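I need you to check the entry underneath: sequence plus fold tokens. Let me know what the token row says about the fold.

>
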Amino acid sequence: MDQQDFDEWGFDTLAVRAGQVRTAEGEHSEPIFPTSSFRFDSAAQAAARFGGSEAGNIYSRFTNPTVRTFEQRLAALEGGERCVATSAGMAAILSTCMGLLKSGDHIVSSRAIFGSTVVLFDNFMGRFGVQASYVPLTDLAAWEAAIRPNTRLLFVETPSNPLTEVADIRALADIAHRHGCLLAVDNCFCTPALQQPLKLGADIVIHSATKYIDGQGRCLGGAVVGSEALVGKEVFGFLRTAGPTMSPFNAWVFLKGLETLKLRMQAHSANALALALWLEQQPQVARVYYPGLSSHPQHELASRQQKGYGGIVAFEVKGGREQAWAVIDATRMLSITANLGDAKSTITHPATTTHGRLSPEQKSEAGIGEGLIRISVGLEEVDDIKADLARGLALI
């Protein structure tokens, strides 16, 4: 198959077929290549491969057929020219920063991002002379006002973690490009099955493949998708040298996940909406955060920008940490873990887990209260999820 096939195929076909190159064995499923290196036909071929004049496998740190199949398939689903697969979602963000930024550059980011991303920007990128400023995700005027002459990158998660705020990607892309900046969108919560940021003007799409792309909580991985110039040259250049590389086995698992991605995301979204509507009716719940609810501030935007509302529901219980922990500890089926995107529903207390390393001021600015609970709604019967939560809600 070639690029012409990708251009002609629909999403479901790409999710199953894109990127596969069969070997002489004629296998139907994609093979796993668990090898560290590759042999060459001659010294001249080795020199050509290392010198870049001949395409082909060299060393699995940066060229592996299984990983390449995953990269090509995800790039096709996102509508990008190139994908670089990494060892984890945070490695994807690091590779983007190290590949595209230099000392003296500036990042404008939404406040509503994963706590580890804040730590990466402030504690580690800051050591190399890259500064970050944070703005409210939905305040376009604040984004524009925060841009400096040395701003290089705008970074946003949409929907955000854990409050599911939705950013106007097209508007942010316009702001970024008007000031000569790049827009990077973390598309972890939606995946390309529900949202394609590149088609809305974003320059970079970042994934934690660990989450919905895998879909069953088995492997760690990440990905960066974009143009050949940005991702194929700059981000790949960092990965080739520094080696935050996805393993061939994990890439194979993610390929299997992509085959069912759209079906799973539709099912997650349906369960999450049903749960969110139920939570809104519970007297112990002060507020529910889910883009599929008409009460959500960006419901209309999410309806235009996304093909579904995703599987993440957050809600604030009346009281604080004690009440939130009581609800969590009373569950018997839901898994108490900070991971998300699994077929199994998971529940966590963001203020002490995913955002636990943030200062009290940072938590307050991001809207992370002590009574907040986040659920990654899985594929179980939704009535069973409700019943599990009802045990804890009855205690407060």
Summary: The first helix runs from residue 3 to 8.
